[in-house]
Each structure stands twice: as structure tokens, then as C-alpha cells.
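User: I'm putting together a small comparison set for a docking exercise, and I want a reference complex before I start. The sequence is below, and the ligand is guanosine-5'-diphosphate. Could you produce the 3D structure with the ligand included, as C-alpha cells?
Assistant: Of course. I'll restate your input first, then give the C-alpha cells for the complex.
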Amino acid sequence: LKLSEGLAKTREQIAARIDGLLSSHDKMDEDFWEELEEILIMADVGFEPAGKLLAQLKNRARKAGVTEPSGFKEILREELAQIFRAPRTIKAVNPPEVVMIVGVNGVGKTTTIAKLAYRAQMQGRKVLIAAGDTFRAAAIEQLQIWANRVGASFFSKGESADPAAVAFEAMERCLAEGCDLMLLDTAGRLHTKANLMEELKKIERVLGKKHPGAPHRTILVVDATTGQNALSQTKLFNEAVGVDEIVLTKLDGTAKGGVVVGIALEHSIPITFVGLGEKMEDLRPFSGEDFAKALLA
Ligand code: GDP
């Protein structure tokens, strides 16, 4: 599936309404902007982000001297491309690279780890997957099945083990095996923010003791089909541990893809990949330009 195919439903949701808006207005007047705001909110951009986007679009249109609806799509395309140009900090990494994967249960965290492992293995990197979500025996099993399927090493201490101990010992294994990339799964039950923070901070502390600088990145996995929940989860995890990158899953078949715009507007965290299916190949690098093009095609 291509990004443009995955976005078909979201496009139907947004594009048809925008076309309706453009054909029913001669001028970009207050009524035009109000109707546009409604369209954005309906498309799951989110209430506050929609207001922000509206102000930015007005500003861009004013600067470009665009007052007629015929020029609006170009303004929107440019603004969307701009929004997704989040600064990406490239940190120097002392190998092996360690990536911590966080996110709520059910968002597609296990599948995304498998997809990331598959990608890295295809690029010739040796991957170790560590089962740090020790609350769900089924999740550990599932992760092991995926590790075998993609040809990655796998480390687990079983259910109920201390996640920080898993992280520490997996790190030892990774160093001993000479792996290039360690992907660490973490618990996804949404308990209190304080608990979550404590658990993840402990993992970070312990990892850093074994391998200075680790974890090098924290990737948050959110589910596009949950719309506004994806937005609130981003806020929660970013406040709790700091999120370096976002992977947005299940963009295939959902009409709620507008949430990707909301996330980019509210947080300057780069969205690096999107999930477009259940198979290990179904992960696509995300580009704002492609998104804007696919959405407004
Ligand atoms: P976890 O609980 O967060 O680890 O979630 P899983 O990785 O087990 O995924 C939950 C369900 O979502 C599974 O049925 C996956 O096949 C499915 N899934 C994960 N990512 C995607 C995606 O990008 N697209 C679609 N359509 N399904 C996905």
C-alpha cells in the first residue's frame, strides 16, 4: 500500500468537503474560514490545532495576497508541508543503538517493533528485540514469533520480570552478540503518569549504566484510528519521558488521518513512519510533502 492509498478514506473525508467549500464561496471571507474550521475539526485535526492551523492559513493567504478560493489549495499544501518540517535532532550514537518503544496497549506497538526490526535487518543491521513489556505473556509470545519471522535475536525474562532488569540483561546480550540495534518494548498499560514515568526513567537509568547514552531514542507508537486519543497520548508520553519520534499506525482504512496534522501542530516531534497494514513490510517513511500531496490530490 502506498501512502496515497492508505489515505484514501481521510482524503474522501477532507477533500470532498474542501472542494464543496471552494465551489460555494467566491471570497475567502469569515464565513469561508468558519466553514473550513468545521471541516478540520470533523477530520480529527483536533479543536485547538484546527484553530492554530486556521490562523496560520489566514496569515499565509494574506502574505501571498490570495483572496479567492481558487488559490486556497496551494496555500494549504504549502502550510501542511511547513508544519511537518519538524526539526529532527540527529544525535551521535555509540553503537549499538538502543531504541525504546513506548505506547498504549493495542496501538500496534508489537507489530511496529517487528516492522522496524525487519527494516533494519534488510539494511544489513543485526537486531535484538527485548521484551520489556512484562505484564502481558501473550505480548511476549507475539514478540518472539515476530523476532523469529524477521530473523532478529530475542531477549525475554518472561512475564512479571522487572522491566529494568530485562533492559539491563538484554543490553548485556546485545553487546556480547555484537548487535547493531536493540529495540526495547515497554509496558503499555495506561496507569498513572507518575508510575509510567518512574518505570521508564528506571529503564533509562539502568540502560545508561550498561551502555552510556542508551537509550538513544524513544519512539512513541500511536494509533490513527483513535483520533483525538492519539493526540492526548502524545502529550502524556512526551511529558512523562520525552518522545523523539512518532510512528502513526493503522493509517490504512481510517478516515481519521487528520490527526497527524494535529500532532504535528501541537508537538514539534517528527513523525518518522506510518503503518499501512499488518505485515512486516507495511511501514512507510513519512514525509509531510507526500502527505499534503496525497491528501489534496
Ligand atoms: P500492541 O498491543 O500495541 O502491541 O498491538 P499489536 O502490535 O499487537 O497490534 C494490534 C492489532 O493491530 C493487530 O491485529 C495488528 O495486526 C494490528 N495493526 C498493527 N499495525 C497496523 C497497521 O499499520 N495497520 C493495520 N491495518 N493494522 C495494524
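The longest strand covers residues 217-223. The chain is about 50% helix and 15% strand.
User: Thanks, that's exactly what I needed.
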